[in-house]
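Late entry, evening session. Most of the bench is empty. Finally got around to the prediction I had been postponing all week. Sequence below, unchanged from the version circulated by S.P.
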Amino acid sequence: MNAAPDQPSFVPARRFTTALSVAVSVVAALGITIALNYLAVTRQVWRRDFSDSGARPLSPLTLQTLAGLTNDVKVTVLFRSDSALFPHVDRLLREYATRQPRVGVQYIDYLRSPGAAELAKVRYKLGTAASDLVVFESGGRQFVVNAADLTIYNDQDLKALMGGQPVEIRRAGFRGEERFTAAVASVSEGVVFRAAYLQGHGEHPGDSDEAIMGYANFNRLLVSERNLQIQPLKLAGTTNELPADCQLLIIAGPTAPFLIQELAQIEAFLQRGGRLLVLLHPHAVARQTGLENLLAKWAIVCPPMYAGDEQLTSYTKLDVISKSFGAHALMAPLRREEGALYFPLPRVVAPMPPDRLPADAPKADVLVLTSAQGLTKSRVSEGDAAFDPIRDQRNLSVPLAVAAEKGGVAGVATGRGATRLVVIGDSTMFGNKTLDDANNRDFAGLCVSWLLDRPQALAIGPKPINEYRLNLTEKQLRMLRWTLIGALPGGVLTLGWLVWLRRRS
């Protein structure tokens, strides 16, 4: 039996296939190496969300709000798709749309689709510089949620940054559900909320962009984020009076006295179940405006003295940075976030002592206090305050803001429910500049939400965000760099060369 002839172990076709495979592998390895080194040189940052925030269920209040929708809500997401916040926004809105088909979501990347973005800005009157925001619209009503309102930042990073350290501020929480549910409820409500902004007593000008005394940003917040219609109001004229459809009266920093008939109109408004937001002007502490006696009827005392804090204050020693909040439901979100409020020059605002209250008195609760190292300052002059060792006290928590509530008056059908008041001891904390200090903007929105019975902004807490990062030393970076540049391509080339030698033998 003749032996079979030797078969060639490496035919030309297999040689070509192997060479092609090695060449493709080498090119792929080089391409990956070049790409990684490009990202290292240009310092591009890629983030991947490994948090479990997407697994957290929606709150019962959100589910109730979505289930109760009877009209369509259009959501326009004007966001960069590569934004670190976008995946959280996208995931949450998809969950809303899944739970309620009446919620329709449209995405516009203003960098990739500038034309569509401009049309959306014009339609919603957002301004040419608007970016990274979400617009909720239904029945001609709209509610804008900005990216800045969605994030809680790491407190330690903020402190380090304020101390001059070059740190990257990390996100600690996502407030999307709180803001989005409030927006859905706002635009889907059939009732249009109207607020009157009182003028004629030296109040802060509501249309002024002046940094300290202007209130334009505050009014824009109420219109865009709380869906309010605001109209200026003067009560001094014989025909002027509070509109019958006014749900909220805002008195922001009066410095001149009120007429008796004006105070009577405000009192009648409260007796009808009205809602009142009062911000006391720090420069009017020594001058009675008449509001003090009116507020006393509603269990709120505004003595002619300032509040200070020997622990939480800045170099001015006149301001207070408060991190002490009362147990009132209005302050629940700030308590959960361990937030802070900034008062440039606060006055004392306190509940009336129980022994001075009648049996049917409103229920008054402290909203904000100084720390336990607070003090009162009764030596007052315009823009200044001093401690009087005879009349003042130290080392106690001094109240800075109070909320009061009283049920409907017997025999009066108001249709509005309980009367509600919020009185804050420093009107300058909502000025154009200071509105964005600490959590002042949040506090402003929470006050209005509670006054108008909008629980969506109070009952839903933020979702924590966990960010993971890999920190390498300089030595480890050099090793990684040479591994990518030399070891990986060299290994592929060596392996290909060994395969070629074996096939040749």
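Two things to note before I forget:
The longest strand covers residues 399-406.
Residues 43-54, 409-415 have pLDDT under 50 and may be disordered.
Will write this up properly tomorrow.
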